[in-house]
Amino acid sequence: MALGFLSRPKDCYLVETVRTERFKLVNCSWLQAVRTTLPWANDPDTLHALMYESTSYSRLHWAAQLDVPDGRNLFFHAIVTKDGNETIGAHRIRLNRSGTANMGIALTDKTWWGKGVFEEVRGGLMDHFSQSPRVVRFAGRVLARNVSSVYNYKKLGFRFIGHDCKSWRSPLTGELMDTMYFECLAEDWRASRGLEPG
Ligand SMILES: CC(C)(COP(=O)(O)OP(=O)(O)OC[C@H]1O[C@@H](n2cnc3c(N)ncnc32)[C@H](O)[C@@H]1OP(=O)(O)O)[C@@H](O)C(=O)NCCC(=O)NCCS
């Protein structure tokens, strides 16, 4: 049913705010998610890295195309600095019915690029999500030439599943690009961090 998200209960554990050393990762409502991700809508590089189909969106179009985070299967976390309370980006998790959590992240405040935010934020969210019995596996797909993301997936201990060649057409250049798939089982993640199942 199209409006099913209105009636499904939120996952009280998964919507909790997650705290890392430098950040609060705050679960967003739809409106908060629109506000937090709006800078992406006019940033061709970010849209490209996240594999959107267009190079820019109007505010209205952006709001209309952003799926509603329901606190159960779709989560947007605002990345908020503890020191200063500034929102510097957002992280998205889509949890499917098989327990796979597909993830994406973008930092809108580019002064934070190159400062290990990906590793800290992704690690904090995986600590939290891996302790839910609803989460079995983490997964990500990135453009093969997104070097810092590929590096981060490997650094976090994700397993490289494989390439698919010429599978995504860039809306910027029309070029067909390769993508890479990564996965990490929740149980392996917990073991690597010394965490117990929830
Ligand atoms: C992806 C993104 C979140 C990166 O986050 P970040 O926290 O700035 O990542 P960092 O640059 O700190 O970490 C990247 C790592 O890759 C390394 N790296 C970057 N470019 C590299 C290169 N050409 N060769 C080798 N290593 C490289 C860096 O040295 C760093 O390693 P370190 O932590 O050991 O120093 C940010 O660039 C972004 O928002 N990009 C747009 C959206 C996007 O690409 N999202 C990812 C798709 S899910």
TrEMBL record:
Keyword Zinc among record annotations: no
Pfam family, one: Acetyltransf_3
GO molecular function: acyltransferase activity
Record keyword Ribosomal protein present: no
Keywords: Acyltransferase, Transferase
Class of the enzyme per the UniProt entry, highest EC level: transferase
Superkingdom assignment: Bacteria
InterPro entries listed in its UniProt record: Acyl_CoA_acyltransferase, GNAT_dom
Residues covered by the N-acetyltransferase domain: 38-159
EC code: 2.3.-.-
Protein name according to UniProt: GNAT family N-acetyltransferase
Species this protein is from: Sulfitobacter sediminis
The organism's taxonomic lineage, starting at the top: Bacteria, Pseudomonadati, Pseudomonadota, Alphaproteobacteria, Rhodobacterales
